[in-house]
């Protein structure tokens, strides 16, 4: 039958399209249903890829403005064309879309543009763009519909001056003032983009520090760098309301109501503004970016009708093989528990395909890396020092600064360090944390070492070309045993 498949995947984000490709490679007949026009999901269209394109462009602007003089390069007044910058970003996204389409064609994966709904195990109804409906019969179903931004009840997205990541990637002018609600990855990355381009950015964070799940020392280095750029931070502060106002000279603006949850001492080095517990106040900006997290997208998929169980957070519950309580229906990525990261979803998609083929599909959640693509970058895998302490683990910690690395000095990018955490008894690496140039690229070495159950000594005794940034990894590994060398 034409509409008979081995696997139908709802959602073409990183988990969906990578899982589809792996399933096709294993000999399955696969169809992918995507409600949006472009393939690739949030990551490709309004997340990972476009944000990195703008980060790259804004880094060039900042480098011309601030860094060239140290290299003996003199430039005149720096200007930029935001429209051209946005067009380039769109081209990058379009190229990624085309790449996924090519891979689908190469692997004979059928792609349907429409909204997928599970009627029962083995049947997916697709509502196509013209309103017509088509049923797909399949042996297995994979839900890979990802997540959507969390909208606050008093800050409804209009994607004009109250924006999610989608709107923040499509602003037509640089706002004079940008208020960022949430000091996590999205808020810091997009906040830094617009800060470099000229916005006065203030980040409002409910916790007592930004990105509290990341290594504290690393985040302090990043925050100092962002503060040098002019970004300000309000921590231990809760946003409680908002109003849209219209000023005769400034035009339409958004005013936020806030309350300070506990005493906060001013720290100019970290850009932290002073606050007194229980103090209430207001802050006005041209644009507000709401970056308070994301939630699983399962609306309209038929989960409730079919009887698929969810947890209290609205995520789909699965077993160790990613199967829901309904046999033949699987779920991966942001719709299930775990970090909402593209590469995590990819590995889960691959795991499901391999499990369906009778193989041992598996994801090691202890080695899922996380990266904040600011300048400097922050990259992390495994446990932080704070988590080790909370778990009562006895560890050795090795740390090495980029200031002592020859290549970093030559690049004039010496802020930050590499930190490696190892079990005190076995020397097995439990975590790695980097803040500095190319941190996201450098982290892969530590991830691989951890995947193989490696020790700090394994890294310390491995060749690293000189002079390279990667030598900081080796030196941090040597530092676990207090053997690091100055370079």
Radius of gyration: 24 Å
The count of DSSP E runs of length 2 or more, i.e. the number of strands, is 21
pLDDT averaged over residues = 97
Q: For the report, how would you describe the main beta sheet?
A: 5 strands, mixed, barrel
Low-pLDDT segments: none
Q: What's the CATH topology label of the largest domain?
A: FAD/NAD(P)-binding domain
Q: How much strand? A: 25-35%
Given the helix and strand composition, which structural class is it?
alpha/beta
Termini Cα gap: 67 Å
What are the defining features of this structure?
487 residues; alpha/beta; FAD/NAD(P)-binding domain; Enolase-like, domain 1; five-stranded mixed β-barrel; five-stranded parallel β-sheet
Task: Tell me about this structure.
There is one protein chain. This protein has 14 helices and 21 strands. It has helices at about 15-25, 40-45, 50-65, 80-105, 165-170, 185-195, 215-230, 305, 340-355, 385-390, 405-410, 440-450, 455-460, 470-480; strands spanning about 5-10, 30-35, 110-120, 125-130, 135-145, 145-150, 160-165, 175-180, 200-205, 230-235, 235-245, 250-260, 280-285, 285-290, 295, 330, 370, 375-380, 395-400, 415-425, 430-435. Strands 1-2-3-4-5 form a five-stranded mixed beta barrel. Strands 7-14-8-9-10 form a five-stranded parallel sheet. Strand 9, helix 7 and strand 10 (about 230-235) form a beta-alpha-beta unit. The protein is of the alpha/beta class. The protein folds into three domains: about 5-150 and about 295-365, FAD/NAD(P)-binding domain (3-Layer(bba) Sandwich), CATH 3.50.50.60; about 160-290, FAD/NAD(P)-binding domain, CATH 3.50.50.60; about 370-480, FAD/NAD-linked reductase, C-terminal dimerisation domain (Enolase-like, domain 1).
